[in-house]
Amino acid sequence: MSKIANVSPAEVHSNTLGNVRTGLSADAIAEALINNLHCLQAKLPQHATRNDWYMALAYTIRDRMMERYMATVASIAETSTAAKVVAYLSAEFLTGPHLGNSLINLGIWQNVEEALSRVGQDLPLLLEQEEEPGLGNGGLGRLAACYMDSLATLNVPAIGYGIRYEFGIFDQLIRDGWQVEVTDKWLRFGNPWEIVRSEITFDVKLGGRTESYQDEEGRYRMRWLPERMVKGVAYDTPVPGYRVPTTNLLRLWKAEATESFDFEAFNVGDYYGAVNEKVASETISKVLYPNDEPEAGKQLRLAQQYFFVSCSLQDMLRLLQMRGETLDEFHLYWATQLNDTHPSIAVAELMRLLVDEHTMEWDRAWTITQQTCGYTNHTLLAEALERWPLPLFAKLLPRHLEIIYEINRRFLDDLRRRYPGDDQLLGRLSLIDEAGDKHVRMAHLASVGSHAINGVAALHTNLLKQTVLRDFYRVTPEKFLNVTNGVTPRRWVALSNPKLSALITRHIGDRWIANLEDELQHLEPLAIDVDFQRDWQTIKADNKRALADLIKERTGILVDPHSLFDIQVKRIHEYKRQHLNALYLITLYNKLRRNCSAAGTSRTVIFGGKAAPGYRMAKLIIKLINAIALTINLDPVVSQRLKVVFLPDFNVKSSHRVYPAADLSEQISTAGKEASGTGNMKFAMNGALTIGTLDGANVEIRDAVGHENFFLFGLTAEEVEQRRAEGYTPHSLYVSNPELRETIDLIASGFFSSGDRELFRPLVDSLLTRDDYMLLADYQSYVDCQQRASDAYANRNDWARMSILNTARVGRFSSDRSIREYCRDIWKIRLAASDER
Ligand code: 26Q
């Protein structure tokens, strides 16, 4: 044992680390920067590149999180603290860049700015240098990141478990108006935020078969004889709470080859083959699937899910044992949240670990599994519910399939007793879909294996109970509850909108950052204060200029910061109806071509978002938007009043510039299709007014901000269903509405495609023959509503008042509120008195 082992952390801190590693003054930080530049980047200041400075700064900041991080980790692994720990299981964590957020949460922004200026560096340039970890597709992954921030801020000990993808979501280029995907090499220059835990590794079995045997005590048992094994290695990223002691961790697993298995058992004498095996093992954590809906039958995707779930549960068992608790206590120690069905194999894996590997009796293991797991559903789209073909499942996870059969047998037996003779009900609830090719229904596995099932907005939860999980609601209504999503005000206001933050703080103090729900409403009286309105408008104008600069840089398009900034940023999907926005643009274009009076509202309409690489229609929508943009922006008359921009590569980093610059937020999904939406909240927090349907969290946002401060249009979810039931015929709407007909005809004529009538035909045909997402049914109502928005914008002071009210009234959409609800209703975690509201 080295001598240091007996030294208390405080002594280590003062004796060996000293000020250079922990000091928060500008002096200490400046010294640390030079020190890190020297020791870690091997550079003298005069030779350092911008990236060298960025790395030196990142390590300097990371150093300053270590003490709290180690204390939190110790508290998770030690007996002394009795607190329950949250394990947030998610295949995606879309954290975005870490540097700025860390400075905000640690409260050292100004000192760092000062330190940098002493060494001749500029913070904004270094913030720009960070390559963001794009380890998620969109809403679901970003929600996980917001929840990690709130968990730490509320001092709830938590580990986010996921996958350390080597390649995150692709970078999007736009070439000739089309999306082109480029691999995201985010680890190219190293990742200063992570700490590799080479000693924390777990083996994960794959494939092969099972066999029964009798153990020493004569019990009949099963064992799994896998075909291959991979090893998961833990990579930890500290997650500091906002100005609190708690610094949680994001623990992401990287797949590597297991030395023993690949190199000794099978490949003796076959060096080349052994290396190939190694490569094959590592593919598991190689790349994030770029679809925001499941793709059928991709074995590697199932392997990814099982890989990270198995490592995570093994780690949780290890930590439980370190704490000296018995396995019987698992659910008292861990609250495990399943972020959609992607980690739902956890239900079968926990059963396998407890029963097969730790000889626990089935019933006991089942109680523990149900007590620990909670399942969050994020979709109502039937086609987006995860199902795995039985043969594929059996091949990769033979033991889990047996366990699922056993879970199912017991579940159905129980139902048979409760609902005698209702075989249809049993068939609908079964974990196995027997219609046609057999499938495992992952939402059913997650629902049966959890004590709580939640939707992500009030409407969504209600629809869940009536549609995709209707039968589960019938048999276990007590499991269902709603937790409306939220977003973290640290990243989405304090970090990305510093000027607005300063203004708010000047008037109501800075407590809003950690207590949005109670504090932000104090802005309300200021909504009619003309001086405040003026300051508010000035800041919005500044933010719009900053976005205009980004647009210029990325696209070459010049936009007018005085125009109404009308923004739709989100994944490109037919249900989100970016093409309804496009139809409106063409309509407006036609109107302006006929009569472009100087009066009236000028608009800049901005789109951003990625399409799944295999989603043909979504990619065609991007092409259409760019084609319309080209025509309009080149029209010498119309372009005075209207500009259209497709901002390429929308991601967390660019979104920091987008939300603060919006006047109007487009939330126009077909009612009943968007589970919640979270961009809607980010926009409103930054003072944008929403034009939207009664879908997802829009409903609650509208109730919060006041109906008069929200531009509502379109059918309700109920009306959508009714229209469909009546037999919806989009073509008759096309025939009866001349403005709509002119709009669609212009696309079909080849006007936006150099005369090519074929290019956009799939889009036009889809609208006229099926129109699955009912754009045409909502078209007129949308166009009229846009007109109301334009008219309202003409009165700038009134608009400013509404904008302020939007911000002031959306405090409840803080992820702190969501996490409080998860703690209270699902995880049964009591917050410290000081963290209660
Ligand atoms: C599943 C299996 C195979 C391949 C991919 C997937 C996959 C990956 C990502 C399926 C779905 C997703 C992402 C879904 C998502 O982001 N949903 C959004 O979640 C938000 C947070 O709750 C909601 O606000 C949005 O309404 C919802 O669309």
Task: Explain what you see.
With 837 residues, this protein is an alpha/beta fold. It has 36 helices and 22 strands. The strands form five sheets. Strands 5-8-9-2-1-10-11-15-16 form a nine-stranded mixed sheet, sandwiched between helices. Strands 19-18-17-20-21-22 form a six-stranded parallel sheet, sandwiched between helices. Strands 12-14-13 form a three-stranded antiparallel sheet. Strand 18, helix 26 and strand 19 form a beta-alpha-beta unit. Helix 1 packs across helix 2 and helix 13 packs across helix 16. The N terminus is likely disordered. Bound molecules: ligand 26Q. The site of ligand 26Q has 23 residues, from helix 8.
Shape: globular
The CATH class of the largest domain = Alpha Beta
Terminal-residue CA separation:
47 Å
Residues in β-strands, percent: 5-15%
| Helix percent band | 40-55%
Main beta-sheet strand count, sense and barrel state? 9 strands, mixed
CATH superfamily of the largest domain: Glycogen Phosphorylase B
The computed structural class is alpha/beta
Q: What is the radius of gyration computed over CA atoms, rounded to a whole number of angstroms?
A: 28 Å
In terms of quaternary structure, the protein is: single chain
- Ligands in the structure? ligand 26Q
Unreliable stretches: 1-5
CATH fold-level topology of the largest domain: Rossmann fold
Count of discrete alpha- or pi-helical segments spanning 4 or more residues: 36
Tally of DSSP β-strands? 22
Q: Look at the structure and give the mean pLDDT.
A: 95
What is the strand arrangement across the widest sheet? 5-8-9-2-1-10-11-15-16
Total of domains = 3
The CATH architecture of the largest domain can be given as 3-Layer(aba) Sandwich
